[in-house]
Amino acid sequence: MDKRRLISSGSTFEKEIGYSRAVVDDDWVHVSGTTGFDYGAMTIADDVVEQAEQCWRNIDAALREAGASVDDVVRVRYLLPDAADFEPCWPVLRRWLGDVRPAATMQVCGLSDPRMRIEIEVTARRTGSRVAQGLGWPR
Asked: What predicted TM-score, i.e. pTM, was given to this entire model?
């Protein structure tokens, strides 16, 4: 297993601020707080549900690059400026997490850009993941 490896999404924020999209540390994958930016286009939707979906696509990409999958997530943190935006996102969260049901926290707080309506951070343990076994996990 890797001892420590940095994963980048290609976001300009990583270099400007000084962080990695994810850090692989042995079997653990720590994915930084991830917003609904489409990093290829550097755009963000206005709708919180669309942002939540893009968050999970970004997280999924980082986990896959680390040799893990959403199935390996053991901890998730949801950060939102407006608590009322959380419930509309539940169907997206359920679809991505399925039966994984990680430990979770939702916190109301300010985010660094007023366009951001949700930020999601995850920790995963890649031992036994479907991706590590070569099975993948289509979403």
From this structure: 0.86
